[in-house]
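Exercise 7. Predict the joint structure of the components listed below.
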Amino acid sequence: MHVVVTGGAGFLGARLIHALLAGEATLDGEAVTRVTSIDLAPCPVEDARVESVAGDIADPALIRRALGEDTVAVCHLAAVVSAQAEADFDLGMRVNLDATRGLLEACRAHPKRLRFLFASSLAVFGPGLSQELSQPVAEAVGPRPRSSYGAQKAIGELLVNDYSRRGFVDGRVCRLPTIVVRPGKPNQAASSFASSIIREPLAGLDAVCPVDAQLPLWLSSPRAVVANLIHALTLPGESLGDWRTLNLPGITVTVAEMLEALERQAGSEVRSRVRFEPDAAIDAIVASWPGGLDISRPLALGFRADADFDAIIRAYREDALTS
Amino acid sequence: MHVVVTGGAGFLGARLIHALLAGEATLDGEAVTRVTSIDLAPCPVEDARVESVAGDIADPALIRRALGEDTVAVCHLAAVVSAQAEADFDLGMRVNLDATRGLLEACRAHPKRLRFLFASSLAVFGPGLSQELSQPVAEAVGPRPRSSYGAQKAIGELLVNDYSRRGFVDGRVCRLPTIVVRPGKPNQAASSFASSIIREPLAGLDAVCPVDAQLPLWLSSPRAVVANLIHALTLPGESLGDWRTLNLPGITVTVAEMLEALERQAGSEVRSRVRFEPDAAIDAIVASWPGGLDISRPLALGFRADADFDAIIRAYREDALTS
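Solution:
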């Protein structure tokens, strides 16, 4: 069985592809035998079962070529991230909205009803009308994005739901928490600092935190996110009911608590490499996201959260050693 | 000052144009002196200040031609209605989504920041996850449309909000209740029956009600909706705060209560012309809409609801006599 992953060159996409081919996902009783990654860059997973298609996901012809008779699922992870979509509105609209719609149309044209896993984001939320959205945010609360990225993701959620309701795809929408600790370098996500303030000090480098120490963040480790994406892909679509959008589990941790955990795990010298330099543009986006969501339904459906932030740091250090 | 109205040939658009030219809207201290109607058909308002542009609102060139140096506002009422968008998905996407985006892009290209009034709908709502959304529905509750029309309107809401946040337009999104009593003939809206069961009996004709008598509907008269749209257009955008979407006031009335009011206003013989013939397709759409919304914020902002359903019938009969 064949699965298409957009954003397969990204760190999350590559981990998802690795997990899919490791037999972690069984779709209708069968294992995944072949994966196509679509991304601007080639997929870093070295496995003969991975085909890398390098190109623009907003190109419908590219998508049609990637889908085959044995395709059973599309995992749509590719996106222009938050700060970048804020800086370049038209690019965000093209990649985050038009390409999502193009993918859904390609799936609709496929003879089978394909599973469609859409990575949405916490960023669909903004502050409440009173600027004080009570937290954890109830599942019925609607998106009020304060970034174009969030608006484009919220639109994608509506599209995947309507395409699912009509039977064009079998959709699953996962709103991802902020993922920490991302390996590698900072990216153009407004939340990039949340990884930097752990990753850089552990590597002996200085890091800058652009938001207030008391800001609560809604966080998940890469391991938990990948396990939850696999779970979302494998469970029967009907178990989600009429509404295919899920808030993926996270944990609520303030920046100060993150740094305390860093000190417990790596010592005070490591922690001292983080300094605070407020950045209004980053703060305006990140502080608009809720610090906690009601996840009783996803937990009942078998999704899982990390134990605590210390465990997230330990997992990052283990993964860094083995990769 | 010039205002563009899409859907100006429709009954609501024509009434809005009439009200605009009657001096009911003062925009930044100036009266409306010129209106362009864009619709497939010509605008029925006979007034030398109205220019009718007949054509497809999804055609960007048409929109660009309609906007002038003196344009201050675009009122976007044109839509493919609910049952029609359900029957023809691609038509609904093109008119309800692509044309809305095209209009917003045309406004973005205009040298002034134009007011953008978007007629959304109660249809953005669907049943809650438990199928029992508590009513009246709180303002924070998010769209979960159970129709493509509702999904397309919910997407339009997100676009207007993001274009407003970025300063491309000065948007105002009004979620219209089901409008009764519409004059003329039934249309392809799933809620068309709500007008038919009053209008046809009053005209001596039989009418069919496709939903249960105990179904609560969220209703507004055409008069109240037009007055509220004018109010939405004229108030300062800042008074809406960061989130430009408003649930326009309505009243909660069951079908049975509508028929009781009809009997009070016109007698039992008139009422007896309505018979019940359940229609599952209509019921699936209409019963998914909430029967009541929390409107405390719009009422505080000066929007108004009808007194009761008897008043709605009386207003319809008065309007029918004078038109």
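Discussion. Residues 2-177+220-249+292-306 of chain B form a domain with the Rossmann fold fold (CATH 3.40.50.720).
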